[in-house]
Amino acid sequence: MIRMFHVFKTFPNKIHALWDVNIHIKKGEFVFLVGPTGAGKTTFLKLIYRGMLPSKGQVIVDGVNLARLKTSLVPYLRREIGVVFQDFKLLYDRNVFENVAFSLRVVGTKNAIIRQEVNNILNIIGLYHKKNTNPHLLSGGEQQKLCIARAVVSHPLILLTDEPTGNLDPETSWDIMKLLFKINIWGTTVIMASHDKLMVDKAQKRVVRIERGEVASDTQKGIYS
Amino acid sequence: MLRNMFFYIKEAFLSTKKNGIMSFATIISLTATLIIVGMFLLISLNINLFLNEIESQLVAIAYLKDDISEEDINKLVQDTSELQGVKDVRYISKEEAFQRLREDLSEHEDMLAGIPENPLPASIEILVTETDFLEEIAFQLNQYKGIEEVNYGGQLTKNLILVFDFVRNTGLAIISLLIFISVLIMVSVIKISVHSRHEEIEIMSLVGATSWFIRWPFIIEGFLKGLFSSFLAVIVLIKGYLYYMEKIRIILPFLNISSDQIILIRIAVIIILSGVFIGIFGSMISLRKIRYEEL
Ligand SMILES: Nc1ncnc2c1ncn2[C@@H]1O[C@H](COP(=O)(O)OP(=O)(O)O)[C@@H](O)[C@H]1O
Ligand SMILES: [Mg+2]
Predict the structure, then answer these.
(1) Is the Cβ pair A108, B1 closer than 8 Å?
(2) CA dihedral over A104, A108, A112, A113, signed as positive or negative
(3) What are phi and psi of B113, to 5 degrees?
(4) Burial class (CB in 10 A: 0-12, 13-18, 19+), A173
(5) pLDDT digits over B97-156, tens only?
(6) Which of left, alpha, beta for B22 (phi over 0: left; psi -120 to 50: alpha)?
(7) Considering only CA atoms, which residue is closest to atom 6 of ligand 1?
(8) Minimal CA–CA distance to A52: which of B232, B206, B63, B190?
């Protein structure tokens, strides 16, 4: 599903965020991307949805070489990839329902289907009863779930989440983890950047460790370090 | 698609609301520009009417003495039509001259009351092919005994055309500048509105909206502002024009001022199209490129 060949990313300020990364993530896998702050995790995720292009090397997603993908086709790549950001990026000028519906509206989905899909996912994340609430009235955990709902409501092939449990207590964090596992079991390939040792150790999934932009280790059923 | 159209229009209104003061300022400045454009169009329309009128009067008029014989008149007409540059020669009798005056003043009959007898002389009108010939023709005609006086408006006409051309060109330059400034204002307002909505735009691009889908709400925003401004401008212009034209007509009844509805409607259409064009064009250039990637 995702392959990287000798991927380098150097920013204009000469910072090397990624250095010779090679990786293969199969369809349906659940992968933790761990490493200290500044290791290059967010950069790694951005390369997958073409939020950035690598300085060198190839990124291939679902058989498509992203460097060769025409700009006009980037939207269609993005429809196959759900992204949950470190900073939620919710829209606080509309309610919970509309935040989730937004990602269906902008791809021209029919209203009836939007209603059905959004209500369905809100039920799954347990926020159906708050669908008319403004997201700034939700707790941190609820907002995180809302972001996940928005990312998966269109049934993407891949879900990328950037430190979704970063600022949450362990109980809420595990709640989020269970939600992600559920999405993974439906068939979505999930990559989760994290430095939440507790969650990573508890989950027993594949762990890719990045240090100073390089893949330092890659273990099945791994632990944080 | 209709469904998408609803989304665009809703987002366009959301954005206008979010930038209330800026939106208001854009509409005011665009309206002002369009009013000036319209004023220019109306003035230049009337200049054109006036020029057409005097250009159809590329004539010299030779006023005849009252005691001239019919024979002499015939000879005069014959001789004149053989001069270089003469297109047509027409004899206007005293009665015909008076009749014409009466028609010209038909709405102001009272001005003729109290004139005891026909004071106008008979004349011959000489229509020329070009103003350049007028001087020579006038010189030739002045040799005849039966002619009282020769009048021609050649130099005056030439000067008027020059002055009006100058007015028109300066006006055109000022209008171009104003339209340019309006577009700039529109561009910066849309840019501010784009910026105030960068979160929506970012999320749109991240969940797979095409660049046109992202642009449409802003194009509609520009379109609506342009449309609204031009309607305001048209109302102010037409009302103002009709009001002042009435006044001018009373003061200067001889001036031929157009109040032709077709022409006014045409000018209204031009104003509306310009407003809409400025609105859409402004949005387009502030959204030339939707960025999907960071560097
Ligand atoms: N847009 C950018 N311009 C310059 N440097 C950047 C940019 N984004 C990230 N970096 C740098 O690249 C390195 C990796 O960043 P990042 O991928 O965000 O790490 P992580 O997500 O693991 O904390 C850091 O040193 C960071 O400062
Ligand atoms: Mg990060």
Answers:
(1) yes
(2) negative
(3) -60, 145
(4) buried
(5) 888 877 777 766 676 677 767 778 888 888 877 767 777 888 888 888 788 888 776 666
(6) alpha
(7) A11
(8) B206
Q: Give mean pLDDT, residues B282-289.
A: 78
Cα(A114)–Cα(A202) distance, integer angstroms: 35
Any atom of ligand 1 within 6 Å of the Cβ of A87: no
Q: Name the pairing type of β-strands A81-84 and A158-162.
A: parallel
Round to whole Å and give the CA distance between B104 and B256: 11
Q: How far is CA B86 from the centre of its chain?
A: 32
Structural domain spans, chain B: 2-54+158-294, 59-129
Topology (CATH) of B59-129: Alpha-Beta Plaits (3.30.70)
Q: Residue B199: enclosing H or E segment and its boundaries?
A: helix B198-206
Contact by Cβ (8 Å): A160, A184 = no
Question: Taking the alpha carbons of A60, A62, A63, A69 in that order, is the dihedral positive or negative?
Answer: negative
* Nearest CA-CA distance, residue B5 and chain A, Å: 10
Contact (Cβ atoms closer than 8 angstroms) between residue B225 and residue B237? no
Specify the residue for token string 């642009």: B215
Tens digits of residue pLDDT in B10-33: 887 777 777 778 788 888 888 988
* Cβ-contact B39, B237 below 8 angstroms: yes
**B42 burial via Cβ count (<10 Å: 0-12, 13-18, 19+):** buried
Q: Are A152 and A164 in contact (CB under 8 A)?
A: no
- Per residue in B126-138, pLDDT (tens digit) is 887 776 777 788 8
- In the structure encoding, which two tokens stand for residue A34, read together? 């761990």
Q: Is A40 in the pocket of ligand 1 (CB under 6 A)?
A: yes
Chain B residue with the nearest C-alpha to that of A13: B295
User: Is residue A58 left, alpha or beta, with left meaning phi > 0 and alpha meaning psi from -120 to 50?
Assistant: beta
How many CB atoms are located within 10 Å of the residue B284 CB? 16
Domain with CATH 3.40.50.300 in chain A: 2-80+156-219
Largest CA distance in chain A: 50
CB atoms within 10 A of CB A50: 22
Task: Tell me whether residue B106 is exposed, middle or buried, using C-beta atoms within 10 angstroms of its C-beta: 0 to 12, 13 to 18, 19 or more.
Answer: exposed
What class is the A2-80+156-219 domain?
Answer: alpha beta
B71 Cβ contact partners less than 8 Å away, ≥ 6 residues apart: none
User: What is d(CA B147, CA A29) in angstroms, rounded to the nearest whole number?
Assistant: 111
